[in-house]
Design goal:
heterodimer, A: 12 helices, B: mainly alpha, 5 helices, 78% helix
Chain lengths: 263, 124
């Protein structure tokens, strides 16, 4: 049941309106990303059809799998003659980073979420993690975080699936958008999320320096490892190494009064 | 009988869902452990300190994840490098100045359109 009445957040000082309001806020928070999601969904449909998947299979990729870049990797591997097992293993490694996203994001959720965590998990992507964790870092109440995340996830899911459908139905009649640079909207969003975290307000220089070190190491590792292994796996490994470094820096160079827990 | 394509999609969806679900479900258990470890001495059990270390580690996940999602897309060493770095720099400055995520995103995209139009007019 959606609660219509405005409610104060629980102890954070940031107002959370209602379940329906937070759902809508989450849904439209992703709206600027539709600019990148829609051409990506259409391009995937074309790629999938070219790789030999039929219309139903192409739509099923987006509707059941819903994993953007991993879908592209899967159809590319199949087109190259890879077997099912090797494709599944690759997809698993590519998506291991979701375990870290879930651990990071899940800590800020209520014990009982609506919908249950099992349903929210289906919608968990890089974008949902980015926008969702930004909310938590800004001190939003956990009370309606589930509603916000559901809005974010469904917004991405619907736009990506409608774009896939458009790609399936319109095929080569679609306009060429490759030269518009719309794919860069995703890294730009993650950069815009990263930059404020490197200059935390109300925290000491030590915290900022450690965060910069973690970001640098993670970014460089992702870049270097990307020369040898698939992109999703590089992100997982880069996060593991860089967060371990940050934890070690906390231990090796403790700053009294500073707390990097909420980095 | 199910086609190979549908089998592949279902299997890929299952392993992906497992990675998505695992973290979200484990987070509650982790939070309980951390809360206990952060309480009275010894309340977190023999590995209480390890849970606190994990808590610190997961605190750095956003910074590490965002950085790792940006750098591979900067096109370093390709002809796209300069325009992408330029857009990234503009977006970073705007988001710091304005303090709003989407302002940085919009500025980054707008600058690309402006530069492309300028390049086209020069070439034309």
């Amino acid at each position: 049941v959606l609660e219509p009445s405005p409610t104060r957040s629980e102890g954070t000082g940031v107002e959370a309106s209602s379940y329906a309001g937070e759902f809508a806020r989450g849904f439209f928070a992703v709206a600027p990303l539709w600019l990148g999601i829609v051409p990506f969904g259409m391009a995937f449909a074309l790629l999938s059809r070219t790789a030999g998947f039929d219309i139903l299979e192409t739509q099923a990729f987006s509707a059941v799998f819903f994993a953007g870049a991993s879908q592209v990797v899967a159809v590319t591997l199949v087109a190259g003659g890879a077997g099912i097992l090797s494709v599944i293993l690759t997809v698993f490694v590519l998506n291991l980073r979701h375990v870290l996203y879930g651990l990071s994001l899940g800590k800020g959720l209520s014990k009982r979420t609506r919908p249950p965590r099992a349903a929210l998990a289906f919608l968990l992507t890089d974008e949902m993690y980015g926008v969702g964790v930004k909310e938590q870092l800004e001190g939003r109440s956990a009370r309606y975080t589930d509603a916000f995340l559901l809005g974010v996830g469904l917004s991405a899911y619907m736009s990506f699936n409608l774009a896939t459908l458009a790609g399936v139905l319109l095929g080569s009649a679609l306009p060429e958008t490759g030269g518009l640079g719309l794919d860069f909207v995703f890294p730009l969003m993650f950069l815009a999320l990263l930059v404020p975290l490197l200059r935390p307000r109300g925290e000491g220089e030590g915290v900022a320096r450690r965060r910069v070190a973690v970001a640098l190491v993670s970014g460089v590792l992702a870049l270097l490892l990307g020369q040898f292994i698939p992109a999703g796996a590089t992100i997982f490994l880069a996060i593991l190494f860089a967060t371990a470094l940050g934890t070690w820096l906390d231990h090796a160079f403790p700053d009294p009064g500073e707390d990097a827990k909420d980095a | 009988m199910m086609s190979d394509g549908i089998t592949l999609i279902l299997a890929a969806a299952a392993v992906t869902y497992a990675t998505r679900l695992a973290g979200l479900l484990l987070a509650t258990r982790l939070e309980n452990r951390i809360a206990r470890a952060g309480g009275a001495a010894g309340a977190g059990g023999p590995y209480g300190g390890a849970w606190l270390v994990l808590d610190r580690l997961f605190g750095y996940v956003p910074v590490a994840a965002f950085a790792a999602l940006v750098t591979p897309n900067l096109g370093l060493g390709t002809p796209e490098m300069v325009p992408r770095l330029f857009r990234a720099a503009v977006a970073a400055v705007v988001v710091l100045r304005v303090g709003h995520l989407w302002a940085g995103l919009g500025a980054g995209m707008a600058i690309y359109c402006a530069v492309s139009a300028l390049a086209a007019s020069i070439a034309g």
